[in-house]
Amino acid sequence: MRVFGIDCGTEYTGWGVVEMVDGPRESRLEPIAAGAIKLDRKHRTPQRLHQVYVELTALLEAYSPEVVAIEDVFFAANAKSALKLGHVRGVAMLSAAACGLPVVEYAPLSIKSAVVGHGLAAKEQVQFMVARLLDLERAPEPADAADALAIAICHIHNARSAQGLLR
Amino acid sequence: MRVFGIDCGTEYTGWGVVEMVDGPRESRLEPIAAGAIKLDRKHRTPQRLHQVYVELTALLEAYSPEVVAIEDVFFAANAKSALKLGHVRGVAMLSAAACGLPVVEYAPLSIKSAVVGHGLAAKEQVQFMVARLLDLERAPEPADAADALAIAICHIHNARSAQGLLR
């Protein structure tokens, strides 16, 4: 199972691809790629959204995941910042739909629980555990890329749990 | 000048095309087309956003406007509804950018002022005046289509004012 995680943001939109490789005795998580789309501040919103769309669809085509996982947002920030995040999030979901891929959403609490073991983990703990789970020397940078990998790991964890394959 | 107005919504996204036709003595507003994209409640968000994107880009290609006008939103609703509206709004702006069209945004107050003459007008007054300004027997339905025409009229009014062509 190959999962493409997206961590939407108005400055950086992180992305990360993780594959669950089934071995003879056990399965392991393999990091395929990760990065972040940096939105150009000089551009206006429609051009920035177009950049997100073009880059994300190119990445989805390049890495051929089976599913796209994104963070579900229910934070208490003000309506204006929610609207701005919604712009990017809408375009991210559209990119997946345009590539014919299903989209799954996970609450921040579920993502932290899946990666660290509890929902109140600090950002640094998430990054530390992403590196550890994927057998990387250090967490990918920027942090948005590591967060996107965490979202992908969360989906793999949940999908496997649903199949009864994880303890 | 041909303007494509979009009234974003999570159930209906209205659209309307208005042209300013310059005559020998005076200019007049001509309604080209209007309608609303009804989002299918049976579909999930990514598929709905894909529907908005596909229909909007087809309309933009069909009607070849010079500019896309959308409503700027600074309402005080909760963050969750702002996020949902942001999804549609982001995809609408992307559609314009993907067609190489500039996007202009107008506050609800400016739209009402341009169409009715003051910013506190009721929804029905806006619809009445849209029909009157475009010489239509009645306002187009659903109301979202009329609202989209109002946004297009607002831009024409502002662009002409900037040129010093309107009193």
From TrEMBL, chains A, B:
* SUPFAM superfamilies per UniProt: Ribonuclease H-like
Instruction: Give the binding site residues for Mg(2+) 1.
Output: 7, 144
Predominant place of localization: cytoplasm
What Pfam families does its record include? RuvC (PF02075)
Q: For binding Mg(2+) 2, which residues are annotated in this chain's numbering?
A: 71
**What EC number(s) would the UniProt record show?**
3.1.21.10
Q: Where in the cell is it found?
A: Cytoplasm
Q: Which cofactor does it need?
A: Mg(2+)
Q: Which UniProt keywords apply?
A: Cytoplasm, DNA damage, DNA recombination, DNA repair, DNA-binding, Endonuclease, Hydrolase, Magnesium, Metal-binding, Nuclease
**Which leading EC class covers this enzyme?**
hydrolase
Its UniProt entry gives the catalysed reaction(s) as: Endonucleolytic cleavage at a junction such as a reciprocal single-stranded crossover between two homologous DNA duplexes (Holliday junction)
Q: Which domain of life is it from?
A: Bacteria
Question: Which CDD domains does the protein's record reference?
Answer: RuvC (cd16962)
Give the cofactor binding note: Binds 2 Mg(2+) ion per subunit.
Q: Which residues cross the membrane?
A: none
Q: Where is the active site?
A: 7, 71, 144
> What job does this protein perform?
The RuvA-RuvB-RuvC complex processes Holliday junction (HJ) DNA during genetic recombination and DNA repair. Endonuclease that resolves HJ intermediates. Cleaves cruciform DNA by making single-stranded nicks across the HJ at symmetrical positions within the homologous arms, yielding a 5'-phosphate and a 3'-hydroxyl group; requires a central core of homology in the junction. The consensus cleavage sequence is 5'-(A/T)TT(C/G)-3'. Cleavage occurs on the 3'-side of the TT dinucleotide at the point of strand exchange.
Tell me the protein family, please: Belongs to the RuvC family.
Instruction: Report quaternary structure and partners.
Output: Homodimer which binds Holliday junction (HJ) DNA. The HJ becomes 2-fold symmetrical on binding to RuvC with unstacked arms; it has a different conformation from HJ DNA in complex with RuvA. In the full resolvosome a probable DNA-RuvA(4)-RuvB(12)-RuvC(2) complex forms which resolves the HJ.
Protein's name according to its UniProt entry: Crossover junction endodeoxyribonuclease RuvC
Q: Which organism is it from?
A: Terriglobus aquaticus
